[in-house]
Specification:
- By secondary structure, the protein is of the alpha/beta class.
- It has two domains: about 170 residues, Aspartate Aminotransferase, domain 1 (Alpha-Beta Complex); about 250 residues, 3-Layer(aba) Sandwich (Aspartate Aminotransferase, domain 2).
- The protein is about 35% helix and about 15% strand.
- The strands form four sheets. The chain has an eight-stranded mixed β-sheet, sandwiched between helices. A four-stranded mixed β-sheet has the order 1-2-3-16. It has a three-stranded antiparallel β-sheet with strand order 14-15-17.
- Helix 6 links the parallel strand 10 and strand 11.
- Helix 5 packs parallel to helix 6.
- The structure holds ligand KE4.
- Ligand KE4 binds next to helix 4.
Length: about 425
């Protein structure tokens, strides 16, 4: 097709909206929270995206986390090319699948065995089923504002009160599906203690984003994760770290390395697939061998362990393993956070910039964000205005106050300058 006949972003959006609900394959991409027409992306390289109109953006979405090395890293492209030549899906174990599992096991002492799946949703859904089977209990505790994918049991909105039985967070989620889901505030260890004192013997697991990313970036208070570990162990409750976003992002060994807390089960995704569909969950051999075919807990997937995703994941982890990358990501994150904070201060606008390494969120209009309630007090209209200013300055940031922005090793200071300048223009 000649460039003259090539449809514009607007034309692609119109065609998309005829055949894809909202013109997207995942709701957040529709930009509903910030307004404006979402771009239709034609190509990506490094820290940049180009849309179908040829507009260049410095990318702080990075596909919501996977592209920690930037788009199209040579090592990832080479690994994919090699694997493509060998085949794309076998319905059988492949060497590259074993190699990625070995890398994950070597990086995370809490993981002795791992099962690959195709999304973070599958990882957390499967981990919960395993936890329920292993404990013989049904209850699960999650935090308000945490997102663990869209499996029914996790689509539970917090009711009124501190520790409430979940209410369906979406039409189509039956009351029965969340009848065993208890919702507590993040960072509130007393609420967890109260639940376990009341009915710990009924609780299979507590699942937590050890660094929250889905209420915006919110860090665990000092001692919170450690206290979760002590409390869950006391009541025989499994502790599940949902590290789909933080795994290999905040550190080589994820949040469990930073906190020295070993969960019973870990969920992974995003970075370990290098931009291809992937998820994984892992834990002790005793737990994981409860899974079919060695055990009786059923879990399966046609394309689980897909060789292309495995090859990309191995290439990414091999680049990350040296550890030097995390020093660079920490530097970039620190510079960007300081720039955003400085711009807000200069404008006299309250702003809490929460950051964990190369994932961060500027909460507008508030000074402190330690949980979902405090995140909810942020000025979402101001965030929408800032998002539009970012776009006008050639910056794409996740289109919600309750998401985390991401940096990669491909970002340079000019990209960060663009982000700070656009942010300041929107304040
Ligand atoms: P997926 O099923 O979308 O692969 O993973 C679900 C999931 C589970 N756990 C955590 C901590 C996650 O962050 C996610 C997915 N994250 C969102 C971004 N906030 C994905 C973006 C989207 O929904 O399009």
């Amino acid at each position: 097709m000649t460039s003259a006949a090539r449809p514009t972003s607007a034309e692609w959006r119109e065609r998309a909206e005829r055949v894809l609900p909202g013109g997207v394959s995942s709701p957040v991409r529709a930009f509903a929270a910030v307004g404006g027409d979402p771009p239709v992306i034609a190509a990506a390289r490094g820290a940049h995206l180009v849309d179908e109109d040829g507009v260049d953006y410095a990318d702080f979405i990075l596909a919501y986390g996977p592209h920690i090395l930037g788009h199209g890293h040579p090592a990832v492209l080479a690994a994919l090319a090699r694997q493509l030549a060998q085949g794309t899906a076998f319905g059988a174990t492949s060497a590259v699948e074993v190699q990625l599992a070995e890398r994950i096991v070597a990086a995370m002492p809490a993981i002795e065995m791992v099962r690959f799946v195709n999304s973070g949703t599958e990882a957390t859904m499967s981990a919960l089923r395993l936890a329920r089977a292993a404990t013989g209990r049904d209850r699960v505790v999650k935090c308000a504002g945490a997102y663990h994918g869209h499996a029914d049991a996790f689509l539970a909105a917090a009711g009124s009160g501190v520790a409430t039985l979940g209410i369906p967070g979406s039409p189509g989620v039956p009351v029965a599906a969340v009848a065993d889901t208890i919702v507590v505030p993040y960072n509130d260890i007393a609420a967890v203690a109260a639940v376990l004192d009341r009915e710990g013997e009924r609780v299979a697991a507590i699942i937590v984003e050890p660094v929250a990313g889905n209420m915006g970036c919110v860090l665990p208070r000092p001692g919170y994760l450690q206290a979760l570990r002590v409390l869950t162990a006391r009541f025989g409750v499994l502790l599940i770290f949902d590290e789909v976003m933080t795994g290999f992002r905040v550190a080589w060994g994820g949040t469990q390395e930073l906190s020295s807390v070993q969960p019973d089960l870990t969920c992974l995704g995003k970075v370990i697939g290098g931009g291809l569909p992937v998820g994984a969950f892992g834990g002790s051999r005793a737990l994981m061998e409860r899974l079919a075919p060695t055990g009786d807990v059923y879990q399966a997937g046609t394309l689980s362990g897909n060789p292309l995703a495995m090859a990309a994941g191995c290439a990414v982890l091999d680049e990350l393993a040296s550890g030097v990358v995390y020093q660079r990501l920490e530097e970039l994150g620190s510079v960007l956070a300081a720039g955003l904070s400085g711009a807000a201060a200069a404008a006299g606008v309250p702003c809490a910039v929460n950051r964990a390494g190369s994932m961060l969120t500027p909460f507008i209009g508030v000074e402190t964000v330690d949980d979902y309630a405090q995140a909810g007090a942020a000025d979402t209209d101001a965030f929408a205005r800032i998002h539009r200013a970012w776009r006008a300055h050639g910056v794409l940031w996740p289109p919600s106050q309750f998401e985390a922005g991401f940096l990669s090793t491909a970002h340079v200071l000019d990209d960060l300058d663009r982000a700070v300048t656009g942010f300041a223009a929107g304040l």
